[in-house]
Amino acid sequence: MIYVLYGIVILINLVANTRKKSNTIILLLSIGVLSLIWTGNIVGPDIENYISQYNYPMARLTNGGIEIIYNYLLYFFSSRGVDFYVFRYIISFAGLAVIFLSMGKIETKTHMLLVLYALSQFFLDGIQIRNFLALPFFILAIITLIKGERHWKIKYVCFVLLATLIHVSFLIYFIFLLIPEKDLKNRRMIKIHGLVSVILCMVFFFGRQYLGIIVKLISSIDLSRATSYSQVATNMGSLICILLQFAGIGVSYYNYWKVKRHNIIYGNMDCLEGRLYRILWINFLAIYLLPFSMIQLTFYRLIRNLVLFNFSSSIIAIRYYPRKYRYKFWAVLIVYLLLWQVCEFHVLNQYEVIVEPFFVFNKYIS
Questions:
Q1: Cα of 124 vs its chain's centroid, Å
Q2: Which residues pair with 41 in a beta bridge?
Q3: DSSP string spanning 157-172?
């Protein structure tokens, strides 16, 4: 039954994608089903840890830390006798609703985006609950950036701070404040950031003894986590993260380049071209995040949190490019999706551990 429901969500949203406008009812019903798949999961990495935190919220409150929104959210629901699985459904539905209702603001097609999400990022987000809880605030921050809203940096800082108060790792996304408000297409700046970030990655990759610098940086924020991170080495596994990030750069550049060429000839796509260029900027600056994955592979979520925008980059290009040329964008998008699936479910993680538990061990749907 659960496989059927999951398949129906995929199929209905593929059909809904053929329409010009998104259907909010279909979108929310789909989110409701996906949230139920998440909520019913009783076996998997970290689930026992999250249940323990929820049942004993005072432990996190008394230990302090900057993740005060997450801590008080646990306390608020737990102290009122709300069951953990009810709590999880509420935050899952609310979080997914905010994400996909907001993504439509950058001209992406939310039904197609939901399908791509359900086939890739959905499963890890269902395991890393706290990361997902902070994700909607980060999504809202990036949307203000991509739209190039007036004084977007002020809004961006506010949203990222809120995300950081749920999961401290989101603090690193202040790196995107380096994107200029004016003179966006300054190629010199992009080349400088690209060169510096690549050099830093090479230094940390070949000189792993320098990773202690990053550990010290983490310890200044959260000492307990820094201690555990310093005990883990990922060796060559970080190469996969590098591959995924440069694939994201390739996809976002291809989409921007094709739309730019079309705009030069036919015009009327200046706004879209600007948004695709900002997504390209984000991917270039995300190279700075790669050294964190060399400390511990779980940090690859820092680039995984950006995947929705790379998907959106392709969807935007497909939506507004002449129909007879769209197959090229579809080919790039499908290859990018397959690359993430292979790396996410078979290289960086195990399919039996990440995906199967949501379908096999569900307390609500057989």
A1: 10
A2: 362
A3: HHHHHHHHTT-GGGGG
